[in-house]
Amino acid sequence: MSMTGWYLSAQGCKALHIARELGREHGHLNTAHLLAAILALWDDEHAGGPALLRACGISAEQAVEVATALIADYPQPEGPSGQEQATGPEFTQPAQFALEHAFRIAAATHDSYVGTEHLLVAMFWHDNAQELRRLGIDYAQVAKQLTTLPRTERPGPMASIAPEPLSALPVPTTAAVEVAVWARSHAERHPIEVEGEQRLSSLHYLRAVSGSGAAHRFLIEADLNASKIEQRLAASAPSGPRVCATASPTTWRAPSRSSISIQVVQASRRRKSSTASWRSPPPDAAPDNSQRPSSSASNACPIS
User: Which of 82, 138, 148, 175 is the most buried (most CB within 10 A)?
Assistant: First the structure.
């Protein structure tokens, strides 16, 4: 489980549920879906992401226009449509990187949660918010606004059982937060099976750290380069390495549908949607739990 999942705020979880519903239409969840979902929380008084954009000069009308365009102009998948699939979308690597870097940013600012404001800054850091950049907003601006933005988001469902407070954790480096994402990517390219089940091995992590950062430099000094690790992975694979398109995964999982996410999907199908279509329901509006699992695990906020 990613460390981000322990500390994701209630608004962050809501944004992910909306993004999963939007991504379901396209077969995967990308940063465009994350950004549109954050903009869908524009009227949530506790949502830090929209508050950050308002501080940068974005109006409600601009938010509606950007959010609608993000989904209406998104390339449609080939083959069966998302609605014909049985489960929800997997995160693309850019979306995974955004989540991991949001954790790093929240830890660096000594916040108690990972919220929509941190997700926004992470997307700007990775240059994945071009639609907002066209409106004159850049990374330096959102990073500066984050330093003075009031933290108003509510604790997420995992906050009460997190191993320790986020503010007490050491701040990871950029390379460190990307290790898990790259390790999963290498596990798909070089599967290792134990008792018939595919496993994420320490070899995958070793290959991940061989790409950049201080560990990469140390491995080079120790004469252990990426090529040698790839050879060991290939030898450990049941039938040799295989190439997997990790950037656009097609593995699906069931999404948690809520009333707001359904409103957003309906709005995304209309290029000229009304402003209200992209607004959140009142804070006291009851979510639609009819399609959620009955177990206690449904309260979790899965992110990968």
Answer: 82
Predicted local distance difference test score (pLDDT) of residue 251: 33
- CATH (domain of 67): 1.10.1780.10
Q: Residues 19, 150: one domain? A: yes
**Which pTM was predicted?**
0.70
Q: Domain for residue 77, yes or no?
A: yes
Contacts of 206 (CB under 8 A, 6+ apart): 229
Q: How many residues does the chain have?
A: 304
**Quick one: how far is CA 296 from the chain centroid?**
23
pLDDT of residue 224: 84
Give me the mean pLDDT over the 133-144 stretch: 94
Q: How far apart are CA 258 and CA 40, in angstroms?
A: 13
Residue 219 is encoded by which pair of tokens? 């491995």
User: Does some domain include residue 304?
Assistant: no
- Pair 78, 64 in one domain: yes
Report the C-alpha gap between 253 and 256 in whole angstroms. 10
The domain containing residue 43 runs over which residues? 3-171+254-282
With a cut of 60, say whether residue 152 has pLDDT above it.
yes
* 184-222 b/e (C-beta count within 10 Å ≥ 16 → b): bbbbbbbbbeeeeeeeebebbbbbbbbeebebbeebeee
Portion of the chain with pLDDT greater than 70, in percent: 74
Q: Are 24 and 131 in contact (CB under 8 A)?
A: no
| Mean pLDDT, residues 232-260 | 48
The total domain count for the chain is 2
Residue 91 within a domain: yes
Q: Are residues 147 and 213 in the same domain?
A: no
Tell me the pLDDT tens digit for each residue of 26-49.
889 999 999 999 999 999 999 999
> Are the beta carbons of 58 and 129 closer than 8 angstroms?
no
Mark whether 183 and 150 lie in a shared domain. no
